[in-house]
Amino acid sequence: MLVGLLLSLVACGDGAKTATGEKAVSNWLPLDGEGAWTWRDDGADTAPDEATLLHGRDVGQGRIEVRRGPRWADADVVGGITFSTEQGLRLQAMDLAGVSVGEERLLAPAVVEQGSVVVQGSWRCDISIDEEIETFYAVFDRTLVSTCEGNRLPAGTWVFAEDMGLVAIISNTTTLELVAPW
């Protein structure tokens, strides 16, 4: 029992949490050049078709290259997403599923707390943290959920799991759901 408690404490860590409960946005999107994700974009609840999976890899400088196919090595490049966490969580570029974004979008402030809001012209994102989100892979409860609206693409809900990164996008143009963290 004590070993389990100690392991829980070590696994949770404090995640660069401040005394007021705020956290650095980089906790939810560790851009270290080593991240990898496998998503589905079919919106189904059944077992995914391996040939249609999307594999994302952090290829450096905030860019996640996205490929479609059963394995990263054999898959075709279908686009990418570029983020920055230096001055808030920023979507710098996106070319995926027919959506091309070249103008930067602020998704969350640099230091996040429950109820944070970011506004950039007509673009607005409402932030919730530690909301329980279910994907095909797992249920996440240490999350940053950015619900964005405005006359810019890609408006919708962006979900990041602490220490893992992007686990879901739900919008009228793009749907991604984590299938595996590799």
Architecture overview:
With 182 residues, this protein is mostly beta strands. Helices cover 6% and strands 48% of the residues. It is built from one helix and 17 strands. The strands form three sheets. Strands 2, 3, 4, 5, 6, 7, 8, 10, 11, 14, 15, 16 and 17 form a 13-stranded antiparallel β-sheet that branches. Strands 1-9 form a two-stranded antiparallel sheet. Strand 4 and strand 5 form a beta hairpin. The longest helix is centred in the N-terminal third of the chain and has 11 residues. The radius of gyration is 16 Å and the shape is globular. The protein starts with a helix and ends with a strand. The N terminus is likely disordered.
Summary keywords:
disordered N terminus; globular; 13-stranded antiparallel sheet; 6% helix; single chain; 182 residues; two-stranded antiparallel ribbon; mainly beta; 17 strands
Q: Report low-confidence residues grouped into runs of 5 or more.
A: 1-20
Characterize the biggest β-sheet: 13 strands, antiparallel
Instruction: Average the pLDDT over all residues and give the rounded result.
Output: 86
Strand content of the residues, in percent?
A: over 45%
Termini Cα gap: 30 Å
Q: Which shape, going by the Cα principal axes?
A: globular
Give the helix/strand layout:
Layout: H1 2-12, E1 23-24, E2 36-40, E3 54-60, E4 63-68, E5 76-84, E6 89-96, E7 99-101, E8 105-108, E9 111-112, E10 117-120, E11 123-129, E12 133-134, E13 139-140, E14 143-149, E15 156-161, E16 165-171, E17 175-180
Antiparallel strand pairs: 1-9, 2-3, 2-17, 3-4, 4-5, 5-6, 6-7, 6-8, 10-11, 11-14, 12-13, 14-15, 15-16, 16-17
